[in-house]
Structures
1.
Amino acid sequence: MNIIRSLKGTHDILPEESNKWRKLESIIHEVCLQNGYNEIRTPIFEETSLFSRSVGEETDIVSKEMYTWADKDGTSLTLRPELTASVVRSFIQHNLSNQSPIQRLYYIGPLFRRERPQKGRQRQFHQFGIEAFGADNPEQDAEIIAVAWQILNRCGLTNDADLNLNNIGSLECRTNYKSALKEYLLPYLNDLSEVSQGRFKSNPLRILDTKSEKEQEILKSAPLISDYYSPEDKNHLEQLEEFLNGMNIPFKINEKLVRGLDYYSRTVFEFNSRILGAQDALLGGGRYDGLVKILGGKQTPGIGFAAGMERLLMIMNKERFSSEKLMPDIYFICLDQKGIHIALRISKDLREIGFKVITDPLRRSMKSQLREANKLGTRFALILGESEIQENSVSFKDLVNGTQKLILQSNVLKFFDDLIK
Ligand code: AMP
């Protein structure tokens, strides 16, 4: 019979790897909480209109990458392809703005996009991200970028990543700029790729981040968005630059950075890895002052970022995790079926006072259980054979220095407690 395999673009996180995931997750939890961000967990599927209304009908995600199906009652449902929309939905639904004028939230979870799988690009992948609602001042942008920087720094990645920053202006600035860009590109329309020709109609800004050298050449003399900034847009960027410089967070202004989603305004940024190949975006984000309103809430400014966890783990230094091996402290070897209930009880009690204890459900010989204990790197063994059962005792063995001792079963907890003092 054929064995069933995981689907294309999805993968299993096996025990050896899940250690690294937990380590990364603990860095995320720690840094976010330190900065006043609280965790939010939203459902994995939502109504399709949530994403089409927020991310934008014309984006790659909505137009071709979503896993969407009709539920039995006909409602169109979608596996979430990103998390900002869900967080905004939840923010509005639960009136979170009433609880405090600034809401700081973070999330970790799986996302689904039907992309062509390649290195660094899966169909089920994981992101963590943060969102801050309520403030439109540039110090909020600086805080968000600083959290991103702090997490990447804790992962050891800031030396090999560049922070690209841009301001894509407020809506009015972007509308004027889009017309100017279209006017400039019109004579070159036939030289543009089919994708860019499509974007010319739907979202010409997206042509700016083209990977095609020919198109980059054409864009060299294109008008710049900075020429269309309002005094407020300009001021916002200047202050943000000043704050980032003050915090010693290096960045580059990149006027070609526009990001793929429709809902961004003013600040957009991306951390790009110098080590990863084509898929080098580690973390991206931006300000979305119109999004809460688009989704039916009160006008509320917001800004956030999302980072791909698989990509971070691909380049995180392996040594960072080497001390994280989960070795049991005690291997409980029971050699007589009559003693199983004692072994189970003592093991449970030892775990309750904090020890990692392994028992052997295969009822193997002493030799194979000791071999297994050594293979796992266990420090101590407890051995329960016929004579120990009769004497209400258990043999203790230090597997590193070979010391052996008989201890009373009633004394095991105190014995180990003293041992680690
Ligand atoms: P986005 O939500 O498209 O702005 O992506 C934010 C981050 O998520 C990117 O910088 C990547 O690190 C990661 N990412 C996006 N799409 C994928 C994917 N298909 N597979 C793995 N990581 C992804």
2.
Amino acid sequence: MRQIDHFIQGGSGGLGSGRTHKVWNPSTGEVQAEVALGDAALLARAVENAKKVQPEWAMTNPQRRARVMFRFKQLLEDNMQELAELLSSEHGKVIDDAKGDVQRGLEVIEFACGIPHAQKGEFTGGAGPGIDVYSMRQPLGIGAGITPFNFPAMIPMWMFGMAIAAGNAFILKPSERDPSVPVRLAELFLEAGAPEGLLQVVHGDKEMVDAILDHPDIAAVSFVGSSDIAQYIYARGAANGKRVQAFGGAKNHGVVMPDADLDQVVNDLAGAAFGSAGERCMALPVVVPVGEDTAERLREKLIPAIHALRVGVSTDPETHYGPVVTPEHKARIESWIDTAEKEGAEVVIDGRGFSLQGHENGFFVGPTLLDRVTPDMESYKEEIFGPVLQIVRATEFEHALRLPSEHQYGNGVAIFTRNGHAAREFAARVNVGMVGVNVPIPVPVSYHSFGGWKRSGFGDIDQYGMEGLRFWTKSKKITQRWPDGGGDGSNAFVIPTMG
Ligand code: NAD
């Protein structure tokens, strides 16, 4: 059995506490590897390594730091196919989606290549007589990231790309369900010229997460995962005096106005609701047609489009989406469909019990369409995180605006319309962090930033872009005065007082 080890100080970390976790191949249903689960002692070793290397890295001029980022970006491109195959084999997403996962992380690395410009600081000459004021952004020291299974390349790079470029050392605790790609990223980062110990990977579960949250030398923690755990991370990290950002689950709505181009909407929904088996925090699992006529026309077009979706193994280029990540997750999704049915939703297309010929042990869930879903249903309130699309019928625009605004999650939302006024009104008033106008998955590009609202995000600072730089640095403000010593070397001056 293949063993996946920690990546400590540029190499294998030893198997820690001896506990391990199974890593599946979701397409075949076989256990393909075991990952080591670390403990507080292993984390302490990683922190000591990071402490040795971080001060010098912080003093390295930003152009040199950027050069490591440039080389890393090149290595990501050179190794794209290998990374995508490895990612797909543990996660189950198809190869093109796996490449997209690496590519979206790579784009954050591209942004981080601009660190000399981004971290320049501000300066006011002559803020008072002979007085200059300047501010600079200094790294925090050691940062940590705790990441989910669904984007094992992109989300780690959202975090360590910005943290390390800004002068921090970084310890990554990836998901134990698909841990190989994060280790491969750390190996490539070393190959790009980063000093050993700057980027380390420690595997683990709650035990390792708690060790990170409690370690006094870790200054900041970034988390992405489900909401209850995000809230726990936020509270425990903050209680220990750390800076914390913690992003949680989602239930993104797509509002379809009567004037929308329904063929385009159906095409967008096929990708946004079912792509990557719905295991995306920016998936669109709820569609809200406005008016009964829109609902009927949309449903009529959706049914054949969903039947045409091809579910298959993740390496098959004809596959629209692959298996879900674990047998437990498959069971959970199917149980949500049971719940929805019991709650009175109409199961229009039923993906339960789906079996792929030749891969009967794979963790496949067929595409599912539920109609007449209402806001009081548990299956609407909670995140399903599978290939399940729910139709919630709205009577008019204000009703459609209220649904995502009042939902516990506030990650993403989309409106489909040809009416600029309706779109503008919706974007301005909806109580959700990221909005798409005729864009089903509005993930902001790397030079903006990413973050949801309500139970989708705890903390005030977003991921990546300038917000990422802000999160991983603290600002220092310097007020300086250099009085003329008058040539006698006395340099006598009076420190100014407030007022
Ligand atoms: P998860 O919450 O189960 O795991 C996330 C991380 O937390 C993993 O590293 C895991 O090891 C750790 N963890 C698990 N249980 C823990 C516990 N009890 N205590 C401490 N740490 C624990 O999430 P997941 O299933 O890997 O990922 C899917 C979830 O992530 C979905 O809810 C999805 O919406 C969310 N997500 C959110 C975003 C976003 O940006 N808002 C992005 C991607 C995924």
